[in-house]
Amino acid sequence: MGSKSNFDRLHEAGVIAGEHFSDNDKQLIDKMSDEEVDTLVKLRHKMGEAPAGKEHLRPNIGI
Length: 63
Known about the structure:
The chain has 3 helices and no strands. The model has no long low-confidence stretch (mean pLDDT 82). By secondary structure, the protein is mainly alpha-helical. Helices cover 44% and strands 0% of the residues.
């Protein structure tokens, strides 16, 4: 169990707020390709982090 799930990668990168997703959502996210996840992580990096206390205002990234 060495690699992280797509959900964990996106959450740790600040792309998604983990508390807002059901188990079914997490399963669907984990079906994404590595390329799709890498692209979303790069996009979040380019856009910057959401301001502290305003995480709910992070731009919507369709997943």
